[in-house]
Amino acid sequence: MGKIEFDAAAADAVVRAATSAKDELRAQSGARRSAVEEAAADFSGSYADRFTESASTESTDRGKLASVLDDLVGQVRDAKSSAQAEEERLDALDAWNEAERERQHAAATSLLATTTVPPVAIRAPKPSEVAVRPPSIHAAFAPRERRRSGGGTGHGRSSADPARLRDFSIVSRANDAAAESKAATLASAWTAFTASCSWVPIEGCTFVTGFDRFLEENRADAAWIDRIADAFEQAGSGGSLANARIDKATDDELVRDVQRLFADDLTPTQVAAMWADLGLTRADAADLALLPTSVLTALGNLEGAPYWARGAANVAVLDRRIASAKKFLDDLGRPDRIYSAEARKNAEDLSALESIKASLNPNGRKGQRSLTVLSADHPPLAAVSIGDLDEATNVTWAVPGMGSSTGSMTDWADAAQNVYGEQAKAAPAGRGTTNAVVAWMGYEAPPVPPASTAVFGSDYAKAGGEKLAASIKGLDATRAGTMPTVNVLGHSYGTTTASYALTTEGVHVDSFTTIASAGIPDSIHEADEIHADAVYAGQAEVVKPIIEHWSGDEWAAVGRDFSSDHHQDPTAPEFGATSFGADGAPGLKPVRDHGVHTWYGGGYLDEDTQSLQNVAYATTGQPERLTN
Question: Does residue 513 carry a pLDDT above 90?
Fold first, then answer.
């Protein structure tokens, strides 16, 4: 920076950034136009008209923005030239003034030294004393707001191919990401320019905020189109759909109402109170299922929200993820295929997603099933409730052990179903109890050795315990007005995980039941330290691994004995839990495996076993009926 407030390097940075952004915007024309044409090919009706209007507005505004940036480049270059000219004028004037002072000094000195008149020196013409006037910079841009509903869209019907609509969204978001990067660089360069080039007047330069607003409109378009695609997929893929239903799917007010529940500082209790203020009921489940996937993903795992709403949200997301995965796999042979990172991930998780879907089918057995957890983990975590979790008077969490994952969700759901059925059989007459059993695959369980020795440590259990504790606190908030009896049932390493949850501050349950425990943490010395009114423990006969296969439990003792920090056997008398039998009783089969649900009926939660019957007694508050 010289004699005036103008940084040529900052000006050059703006020129580069604006040129790059302008070129990017213009280069996107072909891809965006093709994406619009593809989406519009099978899109008809009022919403199709809105789509083409929005696409036209986007194209026009993008062209205007590129022109504004192009003009900005010229103006900044002119300003740089003017600043250079002013610097040169000031330098020349300074040099002339200095030369003039030296000339006058030399002339005065000469007069004092001689009586003769010295020759007159020829003076250079004086540079202009009129300052170069800086050019002002004006670069205004404001995108138009796009109308996506209203004005008659609610009447009649529209038709579309949801896959084509999603392709449009993918292309739009990819181009927006590229443009957003350019916009950020330009905004940074412009901030530096305005701070270091105050010599140049700046008037009405709204292109930075206008650029951001333009991208916001683009993002809103992509989200809007995704929601329309969701509506068609919910209705059974393509074909015709009533505009009134699409209106509900694109209802921004409902989206905003639900999104307010996602604030980071809200507790489950606050979420429950805010949900009550929304006034939504089970009759609104179909409308909720039409909301954007991002909103449903958060809602489906939101502690404090009612479980019917979480179930509706999670099933909608599950169906969309399965559809996305299958489309990704179907399109693998297409050289021009367009896909997102989410689609690839869904394809990798397809087996687990389909197992979760299958676990929601009761196959004729009693008890409604609801998907109360569906995470974005790889593979996804999940929880399936058997029985109405919003209404049940007795709720049991079933926590699995090592090697468990949603890849075999149906197995754990079947085991939970056995508990649910046995609880119904064990219910005392006249008590009016209704049960719900949660097949909780809500944590990452350690792999089975020798793939990993993590089962002998507690890292997985501690992380899982935090998630289980959060789920129990969520039930406390959701059911605060009609609090049920709450039980936790853990199997194998699930007992270690549950123990950490049940020693968390603010967590308390009515009963904790362990079966085939891989060890209670060493930090818990006795049952009274667990936040449960009653602690029960069942263990089948311990047998030698491999050698005595199918004659008892081969692995529970191994998990305890070889662990680094969870050696405690909950059936040991000194621990203080109430123990029950699992080795068979008159009319009941013994446990002959470490698992819960085996092909030959010898697992801890298989039907007609002493273990399952005792679990049902323990989780329905009937300790007097336990058998030794």
Answer: yes
pLDDT in tens, 348-369: 999 999 999 999 999 889 999 9
What is residue 335's predicted lDDT score, i.e. its pLDDT? 72
Average pLDDT over residues 404-429: 94
User: d(Cα 265, Cα 495) in Å, to the nearest integer?
Assistant: 31
Spatial distance between the Cα atoms of 448 and 543, rounded to a whole number of angstroms: 19
Crossing angle for the helix pair 29-40 and 162-196, to the nearest 10 degrees:
150
Instruction: Reduce the DSSP state of residue 364 to 3 states and report it.
Output: coil
First vs last Cα of the chain: how many Å apart?
90
pTM of the model: 0.73
Name residue 386's beta-bridge partners.
Answer: 369, 437
Please name which of 468, 400, 396 lies closest in space to residue 437, comparing C-alpha atoms: 396
pLDDT in tens, 247-276: 877 777 788 889 999 998 999 999 999 999
Q: Where are the alpha helices (DSSP H) in 331-370?
A: 341-348, 350-359
Contact 250, 264 (CB under 8 A): no
Q: How far apart are CA 190 and CA 411, in angstroms?
A: 60
Residue 91 tokens read as 């330098």
**Poorest-pLDDT segment among 1-15, 460-474, 568-582:** 1-15
H-type helices in 114-137, by residue range? none
Phi first, then psi: what are they for 19, rounded to 5°?
-65, -45
For residue 119, what pLDDT is reported? 61
State the average pLDDT for the chain.
91
d(CA 328, CA 341): 10
pLDDT score, position 121: 58
Distance (Å) of CA 250 to CA 218, 231, 245, 261, 392: 16, 9, 9, 18, 34
Range 504-528 average pLDDT? 97
**How far is the C-alpha of 146 from the C-alpha of 57, rounded, in Å?**
7
Q: Which residues are within 8 A (CB) of 319 and not within 5 positions of it... i.e. 6 or more apart?
A: 233, 234, 357
Name the CA radius of gyration of the chain, rounded. 36
Q: Quick one: which of 409, 402, 359, 399 has its CA closest to 379?
A: 409
User: How far is residue 286's CA from residue 300's CA, in Å, rounded to a whole number?
Assistant: 14
How many residues are listed for the chain in this entry?
628
pLDDT for res 242: 85
Strand partners of residue 399: 490
Give pLDDT, residue 515: 98
Could you tell me which residues are beta bridge partners of residue 343? Answer: none
What pLDDT score was predicted for residue 348? 95
Q: Supply the pLDDT for residue 430.
A: 67
Bridge partners (DSSP) listed for residue 520? 568
Element (H, E) at 372: strand 369-374
3-state helix vs strand vs coil in the chain, percent to 5: 50, 10, 35
Query: Both tokens of residue 362?
Result: 């009761």
- Rounded CA separation 106/102 (Å): 6
Starting from the edge strand earliest in sequence, which strands make up the sheet with 382-386, in order?
369-374, 382-386, 435-441, 394-399, 485-491, 509-515, 532-538, 578-580
Please list, residue by residue across 173-194, b when 16 or more beta carbons sit within 10 angstroms of its beta carbon and e when fewer do: bebbeebbebbebbbebbebbb
